[in-house]
Amino acid sequence: MNELRPLLNSMVNQGIQRCVFPYERNGVRFSVVFTRESGENDRPLALLFGATGANPFAFIFYGALNLEFNTLIDREEYIRLRNYLGLNYDPARPFSTSAFLRNFADSGQIPNGANPLVVPEPHQVPAPARFVSDAERPYFHGWRQLSAGYQVSDRNYRRTLFSFGLACAEYCKKQHISSCWTAVERDAQRAVAPGGFPG
After folding, report:
1. Other CB atoms closer than 10 Å to residue 143's CB: what's the count?
2. What DSSP string describes the chain?
3. Tens digit of each residue's pLDDT (9 = 90 or more) over 58-67
């Protein structure tokens, strides 16, 4: 997906790990987070798409540095995406996630550069339910020091990774600190790293 190259180059040149921008298709508005810190060794890039509405949901595509993305999502996400876009089954023109990404690439909605002053707030980062914990809770609600013997779950690690970056996620994992989330906007807390984080 070479259409992402100018944005990726801008991020690399400025040392930016994550950026957020809107994408609209068929009247559905997505929040897209593009990150260089997916946590996946062979596919360090990730595109997180989040759709809002009565039944918000999110899905993710992992990509390699050559900007080739794995287009597989699970069946439930595929059906929800097709329904969100208002697409009916058409054997002559089947919908595919590859076609979705191609439309995204060709849409002209991908920014050419990243703004270092625009860092995604945690509630702007889509949370795919199969990858993270508390996906239905978009608002950051603070940090919790886990009791002795408890480890940060893989899903909570991913949520912290996508919302605060790799360095923060690794610190929290080592220090046994879990990120907490809420569905109530008024209970949201300021998105700051946990105490003691050196970054």
Report:
1. 18
2. -GGGHHHHHHHHHHT--EEEEEEEETTEEEEEEEES--S-SS--EEEEEEE-SSS-EEEEEEE-TTS-B-----HHHHHHHHHHTTPPP-TTS---HHHHHHHHHHTS-S-SS--TT-PPPGGGS---TTTSSSTT--EEEEEEEPPTT----HHHHHHHHHHH-HHHHHHHHHHTEEEEEES-GGG-----PPTT---
3. 899 999 999 9
Count the Cβ atoms, other than its own, within 10 Å of residue 71. Answer: 15
User: How many whole angstroms from its chain centre is CA 137?
Assistant: 14
How far apart CA 48 and CA 23 sit, in angstroms, is: 11
Supply φ then ψ for residue 137, to 5 degrees.
-115, 95
Which amino acid is residue 26, in one-letter code?
Answer: N
pLDDT tens, residue by residue, 155-199: 999 899 989 988 999 999 999 999 999 989 899 888 888 888 876
Query: 111 is written with which tokens?
Result: 């920014």
Query: Letter for the amino acid at 128?
Result: P
